[in-house]
User: What shape does this take?
Amino acid sequence: MAEHDDALTIGLKPGELKPGELKIVLETLLFTSTVPVSLNAIRAVFGDDLSVEVLRRSLSELGEDWRNRGLELTAVAEGWRFQTRTQYQPYVRRLSRESPPKYSRAVMETLTIIAYKQPVTRGDIEEIRGVGVSTQIIRTLEQRGWIQNSGHRNVPGRPALYVTTPQFLNDLNLRSISELPPLVDSGSRILPNPANGELL
Amino acid sequence: MNDTVNPAAPTMLAMVRGLAMTEMPAGLYIPPDALAVYLTAFEGPLDLLLYLIRRHHLDVLDIQMAELTRQYMEYVTAMRRHKLELAAEYMLMAVWLIEIKSRMLLPRTETEEETDQDNDPRADLVRRLLEYEQIRQAAQAIDDMPRCGRDYAVAYVDDEPEEMPLPGIRIEDLLRAWEELKTRIPVPAAHSLARKTLSVRSAMEQILHSLQGDLFIEFTTLIAPEQGLAHRVVKFLAVLELAREQKLEIMQNQPFAPIYMRLANGNTTDGRA
Assistant: This one.
C-alpha cells in the first residue's frame, strides 16, 4: 500500500501530464502489453484518478492518430489493443512464412454450436450435427483457447458443458457474444451458396 | 421409383415451392465419377441430405421421401463401394428415412389430416435439417470473420520473454551471509595452532564429487562445524570458484531461504577433467 502511495506522489496523476500526453502514455501501455488492456487496468495506473470519460476520449484520439497506419487501435472483449490492419496481413504472413492453421468444417461447426447455444454438452453438438464429435475437435478448440469447460450438466453421466472464452471474442474482434452475426432462419429454403453457387 | 406420396401424379419428379416438376432439372444428373469426389466431403448424414435437397431443388418443407431415400441410399451404397469407412450415423439415418417413408404410406384419418403439421412424420427430420443448415451457414460466417493470426496480428513490443526476475545482490548481502555462516561456527574455547594446508582446488573437487548423480545439496550441509573456520572459508571460496567457472547452479527462491546447489547442465565427472 505504501509503495502504491509513493507512486502517486511522484506524479502519476493524470492532471500532472502535459496536454495531449495522456494518449502517449496510453500508446506506451498498450504496446508494451501482450494482452488487451482493460479500462480498469489503465485507470489503476493512475490510481483511479482518471475518469472513464477522459480515458475514452483519449483512446479515441489515439485511434484517430493511427488512422492511416498499418496498425489500428481496437476494443475487444478483454480491453484495448493495437493490431495489424487486415489488408496488410498478407505481407506480414509472407515475411514470417507461416501459414495460419485452417480449421475443418467439423471444427468450425462445433465452435459455432458452442458459440450460439452455450453452454452445451458434446451430446448437444452431436444432436445438431448428426455425427459424433471427436475428442480431437474439442482439443483443437481448447488448445486454441476458444472454448473451455464450464462444469457439468446435472443429468446422469454428468456430461461436461462447454462455453466460449473471452479469447474467442478477442480473436474475432468482438466485444461480446451478442456481436456475433444473428443466426439466419433459412425458412424452407435450402439453396446453393449464393456467393459461388456451390452445393457443399 | 414412383412418387408414393402423390400417387395421383406418378410422373412428377419433385415439388418445387408448390410447383410440380415433371421433367428432370438440368442440375439433376450427377455423373458417377463426380460422386466419388464429394463422398468424403460430407460432414455426416444431415450434411449429405442437405446436399441432395440443394442438388435436386427439393422443398425442405415438402420433401418427397421416396425420392430422397432413394438418392440417399445411392450415395451410401457408393460410399461403401468406394470402401469409405461409413460412420454408423449414416446407417441410422437410412433406417430413419425408410421409417418415415413407410409411415407416410399409412392411410391417415380425417382428424389427423386436420393437424397435418403436427403429425407429419417428416417434421422432426425437417426440423433437424433446418437447424443444421442454420449452423452450417453460421459456421461459414464465423469462418469468414477476420480472425487473429490469419487475417490480422496483435501488435505489441516484443519484450524479453518473462522469466523469474533475478534478485539483485549487494556486497552487504554477501557480508551478511558470511556473518551468518560465522555464527554457526562454535567458537572453540582453546585455539589449536596446528597449521593445516587447505586447498580450495581440492575442496572444489570434493563438492563436485558430492554433487554427482543429479543431486541437490543445501549449502550449509557442505560445512561440517567440527572442522573449524578455515574449512568453512575454503568451502565457501570453493563454491564461489565453481560458480564462477559455471560448474555449479546455485538457487535461492527468496532472500534468506536455503541455498541449493547442483551441477550445472552437462557437467559430469568426465566433463570436469
